[in-house]
Design goal:
Blueprint (H helix, E strand, L loop, with lengths): L14 E3 L2 E3 L5 E5 L6 E6 L3 H18 L6 H17 L2 H9 L4 H22 L6 E3 L5 E9 L2 E5 L5 H14 L3 E5 L6 H12 L7 E3 L4 H10 L3 E7 L2 H13 L5 E4 L4 E5 L6 H13 L9 E7 H15 L20 H16 L3 E4 L16 E4 L6 H4 L6 E7 L2 H8 L4 E2 L1 E5 L3 H10 L4 E4 L15 E2 L2 E2 L4 H6 L2 E9 L1
The structure holds NADPH dihydro-nicotinamide-adenine-dinucleotide phosphate.
Length: 489
């Protein structure tokens, strides 16, 4: 029985600093439940002073606790215990399903296991990757010695609060850093519980701290803090650019930026069974209500298979039903809030005004009150300069473009701004590899769409989709700085 009563869930109040929930004076903000728009609770925004406190606590904890200097295996063991507690905790799934767009079924079966697995992956990395030794002249030794940065500032978005936190904290902590994390003010609750479990698992108090508040106040204070030595962010391209500029200005800090996308699904006539392809395309743009940076939102389909594929997609889109995220039967995510729903509506309306043909959907589900459930939407004949093709929508909206020749399809697939992911669907290996080389994207999925549980494969975008990688060994290495050492003996 997974269903629960959202009014009976006890919500963690305050920030989490030095291993304790902490109340501080400041501006209050309401947190709404995406499923029904009702206020779940109120929190206080971390002022620059509270952020300063959290960062100083983290810096002191690094010096006092021995976290950075203990054996990497010890750090790995703590992270392993943390993953076990995450899997076993009864409160975490409720906080995530109540406060985010993720239905409880998905939280229990995907989000929690995925979060724990990411932490485990980095627990295993802790003692696996070394520095380097270089060839130098006799009686001399050249080395590259990795060390943690110190305090890392992490800022996460609202679409996958738990797993995004694990992608930031896992590598940072495994590498011996401390973290101050600011979750989105729209989805603040589960991250606090995640941090509490880390301390229960043996992480020294103060090594992982959570501050609540808006990006404009708490987030920018975190980025600017002189003791924050690196910033790791997931969110929109616009905010990523702002953070990069702030990080440069306030101490030339390195950044990892996982940003927006407008990813193509390139389907060739020889893609194979249409039903399978339709399933992949559908999942690619409707998972989490389309609120995923990797959502595959541009269908670029070769003429021979187009009619069959589009008709299957239309039929399947009509099967979606809205449902409260705390109901175990719900599978379809609401849009996070009214602002996001309005953004989707504006882009869809603009596409329609410019001649786009709405084949299915195009509006919210009726009778869902202040829960903003958007119907899966297909738009054909979209004008090339339409925002529906140019901008990240972050909703369950798929544009459709039809092509004849391979080169045409490839040309349509690369996007002028974004380069996060691409799906290529063909049984012709040569063509698949040509497409893989031809499309400017940080990830190319061939005959599938979406990540596997192989955390060794990193993720990150080209162009406006970001800088650096989350996941994989790359994310771990990006949480260390490298000191060049030359010794004469
Ligand atoms: P943002 O990119 O603005 O927010 C993401 C995170 O950054 C939040 O925690 C936010 O805080 C914080 N933030 C905002 N401004 C600053 C700043 N100046 N300094 C430091 N931190 C900051 O996304 P939105 O929530 O506004 O969503 C808008 C659009 O962004 C969506 O429609 C979607 O297109 C895209 N998006 C992309 C995501 C992705 O995974 N690529 C994830 C989320 C959104 P807070 O919100 O608490 O104020």
């Amino acid at each position: 029985m997974l269903s629960f009563d959202p009014d009976k869930v006890s919500l963690p109040d305050g920030h989490y600093i030095a291993g304790q929930r902490r109340q501080c004076p400041g501006n209050r903000f309401a947190v709404k439940r995406p499923s029904d728009g009702r206020v779940a609770g109120e929190l206080t925004e971390a002022s620059a002073g509270v952020v300063d406190d959290a960062v100083c606590v983290a810096d002191r904890a690094l010096k006092d606790s021995g976290w950075a200097s203990c054996s990497p295996r010890q750090r790995g063991a703590v992270l392993q215990r943390w993953a076990t507690l995450i899997e076993a905790d009864s409160q975490l799934p409720l906080l995530e399903a109540l406060g985010s767009t993720r239905p409880i079924f998905d939280v229990v079966h995907h989000e929690i296991p995925f979060t724990a697995a990411a932490i485990r992956f980095y627990a295993e990395c802790a003692d696996k990757y070394s520095g380097d030794v270089f060839p130098t002249r006799d009686a001399s030794l050249g080395m590259l010695v990795p060390e943690p940065y110190g305090v890392i500032g992490a800022i996460t978005p609202w679409n996958f609060p738990l797993s995004m936190a694990s992608w930031k904290c896992g590598p940072a902590l495994a590498a011996g850093n401390a973290v101050v994390l600011k979750p989105s003010e729209l989805t603040p609750y589960s991250t606090i519980r995640l941090a509490e479990l880390a301390v229960e698992a043996g992480l020294p108090a103060g090594i992982l701290n959570i501050v609540q508040g808006s990006g404009a106040v708490s987030g920018s204070a975190l980025v600017a803090h002189p003791l924050v030595r690196k910033v790791s962010f997931t969110g929109s391209t616009l905010t990523g650019a702002r953070i990069m500029s702030d990080a440069a200005y306030h101490g030339m800090k390195p950044v990892t930026l996982e940003l927006g996308g407008k990813s193509p699904q390139l389907v060739f006539d020889d893609a194979g069974e249409v039903t399978d392809v339709a399933e992949r395309i559908l999942r690619g743009f409707t998972a989490n209500g389309g609120q995923a940076c990797v959502a595959g939102t541009r269908l670029i389909v070769q003429r021979g298979i187009a009619d069959a594929l589009i008709s299957q997609l239309i039929t399947r889109c009509q099967d979606f039903r809205p449902g409260l995220t705390w109901d175990e039967n719900s599978r379809y995510a609401p849009v996070i809030d009214r602002r996001q729903a309005e953004k989707i509506q504006q882009i869809v309306d603009a596409a329609s005004l410019q001649g786009g043909e709405i084949l299915v959907g195009g509006q919210r589900f009726a009778d869902t009150g202040d829960g903003y459930f958007w119907q899966p939407t297909l738009i054909a004949n979209v004008s090339p300069d339409s925002p529906a093709l140019q901008e990240e929508i972050f909703g369950p909206v798929l544009t459709i473009q039809i092509f004849d020749e391979e080169e045409q399809g490839l040309a349509l697939a690369s996007h002028p701004t974004y380069g996060l992911c691409a799906g290529v669907h063909t049984k012709n290996l040569d063509r698949a590899l040509r497409a893989m080389r031809g499309i400017a994207a940080g990830t190319v999925w061939i005959n599938r769409y979406g990540r596997s549980g192989d955390f060794i494969i990193p993720t990150g975008g080209f162009h406006g989709s970001g800088i650096g990688k989350d996941l994989g060994r790359q994310a771990f290495e990006a949480c260390r700085r490298y000191k060049s050492v030359l010794i004469d003996f």
